[in-house]
Amino acid sequence: MKKALFLFFALLACNSFAQTNHETVYMIKDTIVTIEKVEELAKENKIKSIHNGVSEETFKQLNAKHGYQLIAKEFIFMIELYNEGEIHDSSISEIKKSSASTDSEFKVKKGDKIIDFEIQMTNGKTIQSKELKGKVILVSFWATWCASCIRELYEIPSKIIDEFENEDFIFLPISIDEKPEKVKPKLAQLKSKGINFESGIDSKKEIWDKYASGSIPKNLVINREGFITYLSQGNGDNSILSIQSEIRKALQE
Question: Where is the Thioredoxin domain positioned along the sequence (predicted)?
Answer without folding.
Answer: 108-253
